[in-house]
Each structure stands twice: as C-alpha cells, then as structure tokens.
Amino acid sequence: MRKHLHWPDKTGPLFCECHCKCFRAWASRNSDTLTPAHHCYVKVPYEQHVQGHKGICLHGVPQQVARNWKPSRKRITATIACMNTSLIGILVGIYAGEVPRIQYVLADEAHHALIGNVALYLGLALSTFTFWPLPLLHGRKPYVLTAMALALPLQFPQAMVLSTKRSPKYAGFRASLLLSRGISGLVLGFANANFVTVLLDLFGASLQSKHPHQEVPNAADLRKHGGGLGLWLGIWSWCWIGTLAIGFQIGASIIQNHTPDRGFYVTIIINALALVLNILASETRRSKNRRSVVEVYDRRYNILTRCVVRGEVRLHLSTRGPRHFIDELYAGMRLSFMMCCQKGFFILAIYLGWIYGQIILVIMLLGALLSREYKWKPHQIGFGVMSVAIGALLAIPLTKANVFNGKRASLLLTSRKLLGNQVTWTSHSVRRAFFIALLPILGLGFSVSCGGPTTPFVIPILFAGAIGFASVLAVAECYGLIMETFDVCDLPLGMQIPHLMKSHSSTTQDGNRQSAYSSFPRVTAGIFVSQTFAFVGAAVATAVGGILSRRISTQLCTGIMAGILLLLTIFLIAVLWRFRDVRVISSHTSKAKSETTFSQTTTMAHNGWEDVMSGSPPRRIRRMNILEMGALSRWTEIRRLNYLIRPKEEKRRWVG
C-alpha cells in the first residue's frame, strides 16, 4: 500500500540533515493516520520535484550523517580523500618530470610537449568550476568512481605514443598525446569536486579555537558540528601542493634508464589502487541525507514554503529546488560569480591561485637550474626538487590552530581582554600576516640564490623547500579564512529566511538547534573558485615558465615571480586588515540613535522577531575588514537579518 503524505503547516520540521528522525517524530504525533506498514513518500502540492518515492520509511535503522560517524571511520574516509587529492598532483608531476625525454622521443623542437600539462590544467579548471554542484544531487562516489574509471584508459594512448621514437613529420602523435591529456583533465575535474568537500562532509567547515576572535566561546555552536577540520586541512594542503614534487621525482627517475611510457603505466597503477580504495570507502552524502525537508521563506508572499533539500545550491538562491540538474549547475555558476563580485574574496582567490602556480614555477625553474648550471642527471634533479615536498610536509603540524593559540596568556578571559587592542602571536591576524609576508621574502631569497655554479647548489634547494613550507601554511590559512568568513550553517537557512525567535532559539524541543545547509554552499563555491584560478594559473605558469626559462636567465624569472607575489601580498594584507567598526546587532533597546534609525523602526515593526546573536558576540559592534564586509559574508548576513542594511544596500548586495 502506498500513501501520499502532505506535511501539516505547523508540525513539519524546519530543518534536519537526518530527515528520518524528524519524520519519525512527526509520524508519532499523527499515529492515527499512519502506520509503520505504509510505504510513504512526501508530496508537496505544485512542486513536482519534491516527490521522493524511495525516501522515507519508518522501519530500519536510519543512516547517520557523515559528521556523526565514529572517529575511526571518519579518519579512514578523510585519508582516502587526501590520497585522491594526491593523485592529481602525482599525475601532473610525473608528466612534468618526463618532459625532456618526451620531447626527445617526439623530436619536438617546438616544445609542444609542455602543452600537455596546460591542456590537463585547463580541463580541470573547466569541469571544476562548472560541475561542482552535481554531487549534491547524486552523491559523491558515483562521480569519483566514474572519473577514475574513465581516466584509466586515457593513459594508454599517451603511453603508446611514447613507446618508441616518432618522426616530427607526423603531427598526429603529438595531437593524440595532447588530446588525451586534455580529456583526462576534464574527467578528473569531476572527481576533484569531491575531494576537499568530503572533508567538509566529515568535519564541517569550522576552524574555531577555544577562544575565537571577537566571540565568546560557545560549546553549542552549530559550526562545530563534526569536530572541525583541525589538522586535516594541513594534510590536505600538503597533498594539494607537496605531491607535485613527488610526482616530478618519480617522472625524473623513470627517464634516467627507461622510456617515458613507463611513467604512464605507473600512473595507471596508482589510479587503479585509488579506484579500489574509493570503492571500499563510504559515501558521505547518502540519498536519504540529500532529501531533507526544509522550510524556506518566500519574501513575496511572506509565507514559509516546504521543499526537499535536493540541490542545496539552488535552494540557497531561491525558494524552489532544481527541476533538472541544469538548474543546479546554473545556480552553482551564479553563486560562484556572486562570490567573485566581492572585492576581498576576489583578491584572496587570486592569491591562492598564484601560490599554486608559483609552486609549479619553482619546480620547473629549480629543475632547469640544476640541469643547465650544475649538470645534474635527471634522478638527481628529482631528489633536489623533493625539497619542496619535504618543506611542505614539515609545515603540517603548524597548520593546526591550537599549536599557537591553544593556550592564552590568561585562562580567565574577559570581554575587554578578548576585544582589546593588544597584538600577540596568538592573534589570527598577526599569524596570517606573518605567514603571508614570509612567502615573498623567501621568493626573493630563491631568486638571489639562482646565480649559477658560483652559489652552492644546496642554497637554492633549501630556499625551494622553504617556499613549499610557507606555501602550505598560507594555503591552509587562506582556506581557513574562507570557511570562517562564509560559513552560514548556524544562520536561519542562509539568505532566504528571516530570523524568527523560534527558529533560532538556543535549543529546540528535541535538544538540537536548527541549522541551514549541510554542504556549505558559499564555502564550497569559494573553494572551487580559488581552485579554478589555481588551475588556470598553473596552466599559464607551465606555458610561460618554459618559454621564459629558455629566453632569459633563471634568476630573472624567479625575480619576476617574487615581484608579482609581493604585489599580491600587499593587496591581501590590505584586504585582511580590520579597519572599520561595524554594528552587527541593532541597538534599538538603547538610547543611542545613529545610523541604526532604520533598523530601530523596522525592528519595532516586526514584533516577534529577535536579533541574531551568532557566535555569542560580547558587544554589538565588530571590527571588520574588506573580506568580512563582502556581500556574502556571514557578518553581512547577520546584519541583514538584524535589519541593519538599508534598502539601497540590499539592492547592491551582490556588488561586493
């Protein structure tokens, strides 16, 4: 027997990631019309996309969301996600290490072989930027497994082309190599959209310490659901950057005594092992957790409408879910462009992209330096480049927040001490400024050390390792900034629903506070926008770096690199500098009358509404920077929910 259920107007849940629990509670209150023997599905009138025929049952143990898994299971899944990230770095590095022998086999006097990684990076950028919302509809494992399964046969044409020497008259060999390379990047982009997001599914997007900046610690903060990323962000950052050097070492060692086709067979073996591990790994976004029932506020009619959270990005921007996957893709691209329209985030994303491209440049220029000036053999060059991976590995423990700010000078912190104008090493701003300013200094030192045989070879190698060390710290801090600034999971349904007293109370009847989304759409969009810039920057660095290293000296190339990084560093420090006091909580209860007059009149007209007190701020005014004043930041969202943004600002909210 199948029964159509229409959720009542006042008894349905506002939000729950594990909707079975909410449905059980609702069914227990309506036991006279429902029995466990019925096979039920939700049907919302006039909303065809809400019919879930497979979803809600009243018997059987409900599957837990990934953030509620046991620690051991979460660690295993996170390890596999980091290994998946390493796959792309190793694949790129092996090809980069084999480029000299590939040019020899193809008789490539025009250096077309360098375009292989350019095509790979452009394919990664295209699919990462466009298709990252799809796993929110269909789950993560189907895309990861399909992408890795398709990437396996794409390595065989490349290996066959390079198995023996080819005549330069036949351009078909070079074309097939580059075409297979580009398609591999396009396919792997679907998998790349699920690597770092698996960590968000497992641990959430919180990096809060015991003493967060300008906030009073709150153990019930929804942003801490899952335990926080902690050290896993540093491990993932190393897999994102350090494995490029490992792949380069593998490729350089192979061409010492073998033909370059062996490198692609090594890639096939590594890809096959990763595929087996992902088959055994758990799905972090099961079907039941992708169809939770939520209520979304419709501003036009001042009503709450119910829908199914299947396609969270579209629901984050409108009150209707996606009818087709094209709607979700369009919503994802729209959200990505909205993120780019924020001046602070745009500079941060460009900086992240340049760091990734800079690592590519450092590896290429160091390899060229050791080969031309010091006459090293390929396997020796590979071991020299390994300093980048070793330096990046040493930075992993320092990416954990409590290494620096776990112990304050005084355990009994008052609001005045927490918000005072003191500058200490435990301050996030000081640490971030130090890590960011360290990179251009090391880049300048690397440029000076590339003078040639008159300089001991160990000096440029050490500077390259130091750049890898500082790059991991900078990447981890910048991604932490994105999570800290754009995580709105503890706010009432993101940007769509106003703030009701009941919806944002400290606890609900079942003891759990209600949250907004489980996939952090703004954080995810910001991460993949920065990765898109990183892939495009890496493609440009690969193409331009090879040309510049042949036409001008290595020292001049590294000097240009350090100068660009210094300019971006100045812009980023300006973006992160807190220079303005902004009111985030209305003062209509006090006698003060300032620019919040609009807030007072509007709030008084909405009796039954309450100010958002997110993060337990000790005072109503927060000192903010350009990044935090962006249109999509959590603090702008809090100001909007508290009626502190004027109508003119509301119309221009997507400008930045």
TrEMBL record:
<feature type="transmembrane region" description="Helical">
    <location>
        <begin position="183"/>
        <end position="207"/>
    </location>
</feature>
<feature type="transmembrane region" description="Helical">
    <location>
        <begin position="381"/>
        <end position="398"/>
    </location>
</feature>
<feature type="transmembrane region" description="Helical">
    <location>
        <begin position="76"/>
        <end position="95"/>
    </location>
</feature>
<dbReference type="GO" id="GO:0022857">
    <property type="term" value="F:transmembrane transporter activity"/>
</dbReference>
<feature type="transmembrane region" description="Helical">
    <location>
        <begin position="457"/>
        <end position="476"/>
    </location>
</feature>
<keyword id="KW-0812">Transmembrane</keyword>
<feature type="transmembrane region" description="Helical">
    <location>
        <begin position="263"/>
        <end position="281"/>
    </location>
</feature>
<protein>
    <submittedName>
        <fullName>MFS general substrate transporter</fullName>
    </submittedName>
</protein>
<keyword id="KW-0472">Membrane</keyword>
<feature type="transmembrane region" description="Helical">
    <location>
        <begin position="143"/>
        <end position="163"/>
    </location>
</feature>
<dbReference type="InterPro" id="IPR036259">
    <property type="entry name" value="MFS_trans_sf"/>
</dbReference>
<feature type="transmembrane region" description="Helical">
    <location>
        <begin position="560"/>
        <end position="579"/>
    </location>
</feature>
<feature type="transmembrane region" description="Helical">
    <location>
        <begin position="228"/>
        <end position="251"/>
    </location>
</feature>
<feature type="transmembrane region" description="Helical">
    <location>
        <begin position="344"/>
        <end position="369"/>
    </location>
</feature>
<feature type="transmembrane region" description="Helical">
    <location>
        <begin position="433"/>
        <end position="451"/>
    </location>
</feature>
<keyword id="KW-1133">Transmembrane helix</keyword>
<dbReference type="GO" id="GO:0005886">
    <property type="term" value="C:plasma membrane"/>
</dbReference>
<feature type="transmembrane region" description="Helical">
    <location>
        <begin position="115"/>
        <end position="136"/>
    </location>
</feature>
<feature type="transmembrane region" description="Helical">
    <location>
        <begin position="523"/>
        <end position="548"/>
    </location>
</feature>
